Amino acid sequence: MHRHPPVVEVTLSFRHGSMPVGVRIGKKAPEVRRRES
Fold first, then answer.
1. Residue 23 CA to its chain's centroid (Å)
2. Would you say 14 and 7 are in contact if contact means Cβ atoms under 8 Å apart?
3. Chain segment 2-34, per-residue pLDDT in tens
4. Domain boundaries, the chain
5. Based on C-alpha coordinates, what's the Rg of the chain?
6. Distance between CA atoms of residues 15 and 25, nearest Å
7. Which residues touch 35 (CB under 8 Å, ≥6 apart)?
8. Interhelix angle for 19-28 vs 6-16, to 10°?
9. What does the alpha-carbon distance between residue 22 and residue 29 come to, in Å, rounded to a whole number?
């Protein structure tokens, strides 16, 4: 499992352009998803 903070995970998803990763993070951290919007 990912032990890194949600912010880091989101940043990685944006860098790699992995939509599925961003969605998974959004499910775990709805607040982070709001920031993405």
1. 7
2. no
3. 565 566 666 555 555 555 555 555 555 555 555
4. 6-36
5. 9
6. 14
7. 10
8. 160
9. 10
* 20: its two tokens: 């599925």
Alpha carbon 22 to chain centroid, angstroms: 4
Question: What is the rounded (10 degree) CA torsion for 19, 20, 21, 24?
Answer: 130
Whole-structure pTM value: 0.16
Task: Kindly report the length of the chain.
Answer: 37
3-class SS letters over the chain: CCCCCHHHHHHHHHHHCCHHHHHHHHHHCHHHHHHHC
